[in-house]
């Protein structure tokens, strides 16, 4: 019998079972080989990535031990290793873990980056003593039980340690407008789904749950104080609309500056393609 995880999503409950976790694993395995290309690392993604890099470096001093949740191909892990951090890079997709391992080897960083096949639902397998934990571009949207993730993060982090997560948000005006314009009404409202929802990628399914920042923080509140959060790609289009950005690059850059300037403002910070949230272990 497959194990079922309970999820609290707003006032409703939803479930995410092992079959769905395996669907998600297969989806990411299927794209691992070319995930550094337009699908996983286009210009708009790179821009958001820089914001996470800057935030981690500001919040956690070089030389610290970091844990990457959902490391993908290891772009972040190798970047932080090159800046003097020690990184344990974890992912639920074995193909992604292989890519991270290969990237670290190619950069001569095997001593600084350890790539492990561990899902966010398996964090009890890891030893603690981390100074910071980060997660970039939504791995936590695939977590079956956020209360358990928060509990494990609290166990893995030393007091005063930081969490820096970029999470897919619920309110993305660009996405809603774009799909309404295309007449794809169901797709336009997908982020409003309560609980787990199926999102297609490469003819596979990723089982995803969307969050408002405050909704997300609720699971972490017993162990972590909230240092702040901001929108990522609110004025800028989301990454899959990179061609819109490339057609009007100057205008796009101006939108990017609006994100930098106003993305942390009240109300605005609750929107965007992703949000970046920083918490501190009490
Ligand atoms: C959108 S990619 C982001 C990858 C990477 N963080 C980056 O910035 O490029 C999401 C990643 O989350 C991983 N993932 C999905 N479900 C997961 C789970 N349950 N536990 C850990 N990682 C998961 C996927 O395999 C994939 O590598």
Automatic annotation (TrEMBL):
- Which residue numbers delimit the Methyltransferase domain? 67-161
- Keywords tagged on the record: Methyltransferase, Transferase
A molecular-function term among this protein's GO annotations: methyltransferase activity
One GO term of the biological process aspect: methylation
Question: Is Transferase there in the keyword field?
Answer: yes
Decide whether keyword NAD is in the record: no
Q: Which InterPro entries match?
A: Methyltransf_25, SAM-dependent_MTases_sf
For this protein, the record's Pfam families field holds: Methyltransf_25
Q: What is this protein called?
A: Methyltransferase
Annotated organism of origin: Dyella nitratireducens
